[in-house]
Amino acid sequence: MIWRLLAAFYPDRPPDEIQRKERCLKETEDMFAPVVTAMYIRDKGVEASEQIVQQVDMMVDIMKDAFKHNLPKLSWMSAFSLSAAQEKLEHMVDLIGYPKSVLNSTWLDTFFARAEIDATDYLSNVVTQRSFSRHKEILQFFETYNRGLWNDFAHMPDIAYVNAYYNQLSNIMVVPIGMLQPPLFWVKPKSLTFGAFGIVVAHEITHAFDDEGILYDQYGTFNPLYDNKTIDEFHLASNCVRNQYSDFEVLTGVRVDGNITLGENIADHGGLKIAEIAYHEWLKSNGRSDSQLPAVDFTHEQLFYLGYALPWCAVHSDNMMRTHIVKDEHAPDKFRVLGPLANSPRFSEAWNCPIGSVMNPESKCKIW
Question: Which tens digit of pLDDT belongs to each residue from 27-81?
């Protein structure tokens, strides 16, 4: 019995002191996620954070509007499926930034009233954390569900992290406060922001309509969104993306799995297409006026694509890449840039890529 208790509540202890500190820090952040979020917001400035959230809220509306106006242009979508997709987009809830409750000290004290922490007893704290989390989960069964609030996400540790996500089961997109900073979100120029942050938002919107998203309706209920003909046409169009990524060689003899990464690749392609449309419309409505970066001679469109590529700059070891290919549903960073851009006529035009070149192939994949 004691062994079962230890196995359930006492994780493997890292032998290295630095690793132990990292684990303790991570578990503390997970336990006190609302507190960490509040600390992060106050460090950035509450007023400044609110202003950025307002700007992001407007940008999300621009992205959703671009997606909405692009839907009727999809040749593979029937009239019935078009109506269903528009309805799902209309019902999508956006949670931007952070829940205001985390800045209320009284609320925080009440929320953590049951959590008794002992600075000298790690095992006791692990048990407390598991018990506390389970208690909160049980309480949710007796609460009235409101899809428009942060209830399902406010206590998660990644609100202050750089990670937007879409929840299929509730049709909710979360854009946490941690994302609202460079190299994703820039005050100016807007080209960089639309290219980096705008594509992330559009990527998450597209998840509502990828190979998994089409299995759920506007309320997040397991109910196929499209009719059978549209689903067949969608999968036919998706085959091009599947084959494209399956040809990408990460290391000698090691290729991207076009099946495992399909959903994310579809979202990447859709995100780029929608962000391109949104920035083009924004430029047009602002008389093609946008800020420029000093000392570099790039057009607005070129900066847009540089903004897209910038967050994916990374160097990985061969061993990490082999692990990534097996365990991650995302393509490696490099191919999340090259794949979508090679299918973009606007990119080829902006950078004058010759027809038939690697970044401007004559045959391009087109889903969105």
Answer: 888 888 888 889 989 998 999 999 999 999 999 999 999 999 999 999 999 999 9
Which among 94, 204, 233, 290 is annotated as catalytic? 204
| Predicted pLDDT of residue 57 | 92
Average pLDDT over residues 72-97: 94
The pLDDT-based confidence of 155 (bands split at 50, 70, 90) is low
In degrees and rounded to multiples of 5, residue 167 shows phi and psi of -105, 115
Angle between helices 262-285 and 46-70 (to 10 degrees): 100
- Our answer to whether residue 61 is catalytic in this structure is no
Residue with the two structure tokens 């389970």: 134
87 among known catalytic residues: no
For domain 15-42+54-351, the CATH superfamily is Collagenase (Catalytic Domain) (3.40.390.10)
Please tell me which residue in 268, 276, 290, 301 is annotated as part of the active site. 268
Residue 237 pLDDT > 90, yes or no? Answer: yes
Per domain, the residue ranges of the chain are: 15-42+54-351
